[in-house]
Amino acid sequence: MPEQDPQLEVVSPSHGDDTEQLLHRWHKGDKAALHELVQRDMPWIRSRVRQRLGEALRQHGDTDDFLHEAVLDILSYTPRFLATDRDVFRRLVTRIVENTLRGQSEFYSRLRRDRGRSVPLPDDSVLDLDAQRRTGTTPSQHAARSEEEAWLRLALDLIEPEDRDVIVMREWNGEAFADIGVRLGIPENTARMRFARALGRLAAQVEALRRGIV
Q: For 9-19, how does the pLDDT look when each residue is reduced to its tens digit (9 = 90+)?
């Protein structure tokens, strides 16, 4: 069983937090709610990303504009989710921003959009990140498959870029392990093992999300 990412934290909801209400409004099409979420938490996200990935961020020129666009892109193309707590929301978004910066930002922005087009989720599909509230039941097999797809898509944005690379190459691009090995500069068997380990970490990330750990 893969070790839990030390960055993951169980965060308890704060009293009087309006995060969930804002997310509900956004999911119903209220753009003002999305703007309020971004404006409210951008200073924290900006500070966190600059502290951890200053050099990678500076490569994008106007960092304020880049971060603002990156957060909007993430919220537009990741599966919709509910977070009862402000800390859960901003830690989740910040981790995706950091992983995007550490990977290939333009490539993964396109991939996120492509996933949204090729594997559309139901309009009412919203992931509830509050583990205590979820029932774990779905009304049909189709809904269960859609829900699982949403969990996987969100988790894929949260795992390490090198793990995401090999999963994308194999699962989304359908590349052979021999070709993946050539691209990564490793033997075919090593590529196969790296893919297996990456799948394990993806499964662990899905389980962490289901347990309300961000």
A: 434 444 458 99
Domains of the chain, each with CATH number or no CATH = 19-134 (no CATH), 159-214 (1.10.10)
State the Cα–Cα distance between residues 71 and 75, nearest whole angstrom: 6
User: How is residue 136 written in tokens?
Assistant: 């774990």
CA distance 56 to 63: 10
* Assigned token pair, 127: 């992931």
142/147 Cα distance (integer angstroms) = 9
When pLDDT is averaged across residues 115-125 and rounded to a whole number, the result is: 54
Q: Rounded to whole angstroms, how far apart are CA atoms 83 and 150?
A: 15
How are the residues of the chain apportioned to helix, strand and coil, as percentages rounded to the nearest 5? 65, 5, 30
* 81 SS3 class: strand
Q: Cβ distance 199 to 171 under 8 Å?
A: no
| Burial class of 89 by CB neighbour count within 10 A (0 to 12, 13 to 18, 19+) | buried
Which residues, including other chains, have CB under 8 Å from residue 95's CB and lie 6 or more apart?
7, 158, 214
Residue pair 112/73 in contact by the 8 Å Cβ criterion:
yes
pLDDT at 75: 84
Residues 94 and 46 sit within 8 Å (Cβ to Cβ): no
Alpha-carbon gap, residue 53 to 210, rounded angstroms: 28
Residue 89: is its pLDDT beyond 80? yes
Identify which has the larger pLDDT, 80 or 135: 80
